[in-house]
C-alpha cells in the first residue's frame, strides 16, 4: 500500500515514473526531506516537520517550500490511505532536473511501517558508537557542510547502519572527535537520570528532533526535568536509561551498547511512551 501526491493535491499512481533521470536529488542528493508519523489519519508534529523542511531548504538555498501546497499534499495522501492505522509519510523536495526549467521536484508518499520497526519499538535495540568525523564547533565554522539539515545526502548514515549490522548491532550512536555524543543516523539520543531527560544541543551540528521535542513537552508537564546539554560517550553507560527517538520508531530503548548489556529499561520505556502518546 502506497499513496503518492503532488503539491496541487492530486494523487499519482506510485508505479508511474515521476522523477527525471537528471533530477539533482537523484544525481547528487541535492534536496531535503521529512518523515512524518500518521496515526489514525492524524499527522504527528506536522507543523514542526514543515518548519524543519523550510529550515533545511534554506540551508541548501532551495526555493522556500510552499507550505499550503505541502498541506494539500499531506491531506491528499492521508485521505487516500486505506492501509494500516499507522503510516510513514515522506515529504521530498529536490532542486529539480539539472537540464530542466528550474522547477523543484516535490511530492509526498505514504508508506506502510515495516514489521522490523514495530518490533524494535516493543523490544528495543542494540547499538554501537561510531565516530562521525566532526567536532562540535564545525557546524558554525563550516555551514556549507549542512550539518543539522535533513538533506537527501544520507549515504554516510546508511553506510554506518550497514557497518553496525556487520558488528551484530541494530543501530548507531554517532560521536564527535572529542567524544561528544551527537545523534543516530535517523534518530535523536535521549538519556535518563532519575526524573531528568537529557539530549545533546542542536548547535553542535545535529538535527533538532521533533519527537524529542514532543516527549520533552509532555515530560515537563508531568513534573520531569529536561536538559539540553552536551553528552559525553561515557554518559551512555552512566545513566538510568538510553533511548533513540524518531518520528516513525517513536521511543525506542537501547538494550546494549558496543556489546555491553545495559539495564532493563522496559518499565521506563513504557512510562516514556505513555508520556509521548499523551501529546496526541
Written description of the protein model:
This protein is α+β, with helices and mostly antiparallel strands. The chain has 2 domains: 3-113, Aminotransferase class 4, branched-chain amino acid transferase, N-terminal domain (D-amino Acid Aminotransferase, Chain A, domain 1, 2-Layer Sandwich); 118-277, D-amino Acid Aminotransferase, subunit A, domain 2 (D-amino Acid Aminotransferase, Chain A, domain 2), CATH 3.20.10.10. Helix content is 29%, strand content 26%. It contains 8 helices and 14 strands. The protein has helices at 24-28, 46-59, 67-79, 115-123, 138-141, 155-166, 210-221, 266-277; strands at residues 3-5, 11-12, 31-39, 42-43, 86-94, 105-111, 125-131, 171-175, 188-193, 196-199, 225-228, 241-246, 250-257, 260-261. A hairpin with a 2-residue loop joins strand 3 and strand 4. Helix 7 packs across helix 8 (266-277). The longest helix is centred in the first third of the chain and has 14 residues, at 46-59. The radius of gyration is 19 Å and the shape is globular. The two termini are 25 Å apart. The mean pLDDT is 96.
Features:
alpha+beta, 8 helices, 14 strands, globular
In the CATH hierarchy, what is the architecture of the largest domain at level 2?
Alpha-Beta Barrel
Q: What's the β-strand tally?
A: 14
Mean pLDDT: 96
Largest sheet, described in full? 8 strands, mixed
Highest CATH level, the class of the largest domain: Alpha Beta
Q: Please, how many domains? A: 2
Uncertain stretches of 5 or more adjacent residues:
none
The separation of the N and C termini measures 25 Å
**Given the structure, what is the number of helices?**
8
Oligomeric form of this entry?
Answer: single chain
Q: CATH homologous superfamily of the largest domain - what is it?
A: D-amino Acid Aminotransferase, subunit A, domain 2
Helix content range: 25-40%
Rg, Å, rounded: 19 Å
Shape: globular
Structural class: alpha+beta
Secondary-structure element series: EEHEEHHEEHEHHEEEHEEEEH
